[in-house]
Prior knowledge:
With about 475 residues, the chain is an alpha/beta fold.
Amino acid sequence: MIILDRKNNEPLYMQIYAQIKEEILNGIIKEGQVLTGSRGLAGILGVSRNTVNSAYGQLAAEGYIIPQKGIGYTAAKVPELTVSRERPVQARLKQAMPVERKQPDILYDLTNSSQTSDLFPKRFWKRCTLECLDMLENEARISSCQDKQGELYLRKNLLSYLQRIRGVSCDEDQIIITCGIQQSLDYLCRLFPPGRQTILMEEPGFHKAAAVFSNNNINVQKVPVDEHGIVVSKLPRVSDACAVYSTPSHQFPTGVTLSAGRRYELLEWAQKNDAFIMEDDFDSEFRYYSKPIPALQSIDRDDRVIYLGTFSKALSPSVRMGYMILPPKLLKAYFHRFENYNSTVPLLNQYVIARLIETGQYDRHVRRLNHIFRRRLERFSEELADVKDRIEISGNGTGQYFLLKFAGQADQNELIRKALERGVKVYPTMQFWQEKAACPPNSLFLGFAKISLEDIPDCVERLRAAWKEWI
């Protein structure tokens, strides 16, 4: 029996459709049974014949009923499915989702994964968007499919920028535009030969890169880092190592810069072992007291460096756009492997960023960010200056974060909990270590991209109150 609820917002034809479908699935309407004609059912239900026809049409489209000439519709054969009716889908979904613990209200989130909204170049972005819409319309590109490498307009302008700022040496055909560092790494994992499935990685290092390698069933082996960067002499002798993942210009998370001598040692190691170096140059543009150091790729003469970059740090994490520069040997493998792929990066966003670079607005924006971030870092240092014998700020005037190390015994989980009670969210360093036991328990990760300059004194005052036992 079909019962219609006319107060329900669901269309009447969908109510008819759903109830007939349910009866077929439950075996109430048997296979081959003739359904009531549309005129007759419309009269019984007090609806128009078109409403019934719409319901029957949907059922027929999905294969639940079959039109029979001269008869009407008959029920189709539908395999029986064992369906648990003990819990609704919401309950099953809730069980699958991670448990979220209620946290205190957060006034200051000291992350480096987000930024204060005033940092986004809204005025320039809006202007360039309008200009690029006209450009795309004039080029008849606004509704076109994109090549897998990304737009040539962006690749040409990006190449010019990287040559000037980072000393990168390549051709625009070597540049691949991606949705960010993790997609770049995901692509790379599919380019390495099956017999070489080990990647060497800095310890500590970028945990989200390690997650990509792990999800691609790549074996990860750790290499220690000291005050001069990755210790090249400690690179393990692994015959199936395809690459080493490194952040030479600003090691994540320690902040150290790979020394010149070790840069050449690393290149020599890659050549001798027929391996690649994945150079993640994630925030090299942000140096507050010196000029940016040229990329490792700029001194590579044997095509061993895979250069990785992102726009997320300079523009916004929500832009989700990055790029990689492939050596010729890997570029050939890329074209073969991803022959039938299209770019997943929005065309308009590629044009907008290309236009920002072309007009010089991107350079001006980066200079502005350097000024803002330098002042924020200095303000944190000033506010903590009187406790520097109990807290060490680790950083070399680069990036959007610093590490805090307490002089005495401390547990980072306890420090994080106490800070949260005061409305400040700080982050553990444990996540950056594969060997958790090796992580100093008295260290924390603090970003300053998402806190305004004027809020820093109040934030530090809250941290002082939270950590009075340790400082």
